Amino acid sequence: MDAMNQIQDLDDNLERLKALAALLEKQMGKCPASELRFCTWIATWTRTPEGLRDAEKDLPRLPEALRYDYAAWIHDGAK
Domain tally for the chain? Predict the structure, then answer.
């Protein structure tokens, strides 16, 4: 894979992470962390491209585990 494809894939994934972040905030409440930190948390939670696809598959319904973990994370100050 060439560098341009890698950059495009990264950009595409970031947009998908941002969309999940926006949906989480809409459904669960505002995140106290920066957008980058929030997207990083979601990327860590999903772990792989397949995990990201799994999190997106029933949108706008979010996975219960993601909602639960997000609530716990923001309750702890999004650290």
Answer: 1
